[in-house]
Amino acid sequence: MPPAPAVSPQSSQTTPATPPTPAVSPEAMQDLGTRVATRINTIRQQDPRAQHATWGISVVDLATGASLYAENADKLLQPASNTKLFTTATTLALVGADYKFSTTIEAAGPPDSSGRVSGDLILVGRGDPNLSGRILPYAKKTERVTQHARMLDELVDQVAAAGVRVIDGDIVGDDSYFVYERYGEGWAQDDLMWDYGAPVSALTVNDNVVFASLKPADRVGQRALLTLDPYTSYYTVRNLVTTTARNPCARQGSRCAFAVVAISSSAASSATRRAPGVFSFTDCSGGAPFGSAARGSGRDQQSQPEPPCRDDVASSGKTDPIAAEDGSLSTRFKGTFAADHLEAKTGQLGEVNSLSGYAITKGGHNIAFSILINHHTLGNTKAKQMIDDIVNAVLEED
């Protein structure tokens, strides 16, 4: 039978135009570095809690290679989801952007003249992270269509088109293409209860998510209407939600949706890492060891590269969210110069926040930067605001 149509992520983002970097003398670059350092240090001193955190900052001018700011640039720090920069760059470098994931439905033999297949029909997964209702190419934000398992429907259509009418056996899912390693080494136990902590395998359908939605019943006192998509009998959900009279504080008929069993892009990153030929980075462009990006998603505590290496990776890909426009940066940097002048990858874990990418300053300098805060008590909102303030300060320099 013909293999399933491969699905590979694509991006419809438009990269901001890159103006020529102005020629500057070493003295002017040094003066720029001094001004940048003054502004960054001022921001870091505004909150006493920031003084007790571990900062890793590297800002580099891409045209000259000059370091404009460096703090703990040689230290191994937790990057959170900035690890995905390494996963993506490794995949592009060793596998290539044209790699196709192949998901097939196979049988021991072709159907007979009556369309009967003798034996099992086997769904063979090979790591495709997009067997889902996710709309591709990606445009500014994740969008999904129902049915969420529509890719399986397309495979079933191909089976029918091949003449199969009766299966004299079972339908079996085969996820043996990857080594059996459901959870990344170093994942915390409390991660496993959340959407980003679901197990990873070579056969991942709908990001391993079951979407559950609750809607009020027609009458007060009746059980709320529960639906699962994709539907599965594997899980038993005990529905104790009762429809009540209309409440002024809530809209009757509003839809409440939550994930019962879920997995996020962390799993997609871990799955992509296992594509043929994908291995961990072991050195930067200069060949110096920089630590590890162990599991691909950043959930584990073992991913600890240095800030300069994140500069190297960030400046090589140019596939990150655009400030104030899409993805995880859609609500950040609005009304600032950074909007449309910066592309970066965010990261967030308990007591960890990060942002790494590249940008164009008001003076026309193309820069790569990486900012990490570890072991902080700032809270996510304040930590992200301080990071954004630092980035804005750097970009506003002429």
The CATH architecture of the domain at 26-95 and 268-395 = 3-Layer(aba) Sandwich
Which percent band covers the strand fraction? 15-25%
Mean pLDDT: 80
CATH fold description of the domain at 26-95 and 268-395: Beta-lactamase
| Helix and strand composition category | alpha+beta
Q: How are strands sequenced across the largest beta sheet?
A: 2-1-13-12-11
Strand tally is 13
Molecular structure report:
- The chain has a five-stranded antiparallel beta sheet, with helices on both faces. It has a three-stranded mixed beta sheet with strand order 3-5-7, with no helix packed on it. A three-stranded antiparallel beta sheet has the order 9-8-10, with no helix packed on it.
- The protein is built from seven helices and 13 strands.
- It has helices spanning 26-44, 48-51, 83-94, 150-161, 265-273, 307-317, 380-395, and strands at residues 54-61, 67-71, 104-107, 116-118, 121-124, 166-168, 171-174, 210-215, 225-229, 256-261, 342-349, 352-360, 366-374.
- The protein is of the alpha+beta class and 398 residues long.
- 33% of the residues are buried.
- Helix content is 21%, strand content 19%.
